[in-house]
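Support request, please re-run this one:
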Amino acid sequence: GVGWAMLASGCGGAASAAPLARAGVTEGVPVESLATVTACVVRPEQTEGPFFIDERLERSDIRADPVDGALSPGLPLTLTLLLARVSAAQCLPLAGALVDIWHCDALGRYSDVDDPHAATIGHRFLRGFQTSDARGTVRFTTIFPGWYRGRTVHIHIKVRTGLGTPARREFTSQLYFADALTDHVHGQAPYAAVGRRRMRNGDDGIFRDGGEQLVLAPTTTPTGLEATFGIGMVGI
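Re-run finished. Output below.
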């Protein structure tokens, strides 16, 4: 196996998102924890991209390919998302929402797509969904994403409520990492095998449209990284 070097001091901290006003949250709304405050930050939507597939693959650990059980190699990442419904009057945990995440592997490949550079039809690695609990929380185990031409490093997220009803709502966005953190991780195997990435956050047109509000700030664990991120949504 590959031994992962611990991240340099301050590398994870470089990923901190810029402070944001808690839009729509009024005084007097009960706040039970710091996590609740974080979830009440309203985040921007971003484009879905071409690779969402409604696999309905319910699982927390998305690293394995259900076809053969093979794990996608890479630095383990535990991602906890705190979801909240924000209005002008209150901010409440969003329970019962379907939350999908998906992203490319360490070599820049998405699963279950007909890509001329890496056809992966029938495989379903690095895809899955969880249903948010009463506190609006979902947790995934995955890997730090790789890169592919034309984009900076990112994770896709889709939140859906009221499926099959007239009240159906959807929120789609992307999550990012600080360039310094990505450079550190991608300097190690298996990421290094594909060479230095060609696009950084500031060069990515999608990132420039609100991406600074969607940057994860992971901390190190004995086995990899973990990150918690709050997503406040309006109109869902």
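The radius of gyration is 17 Å. DSSP finds two helices and nine strands in the chain.
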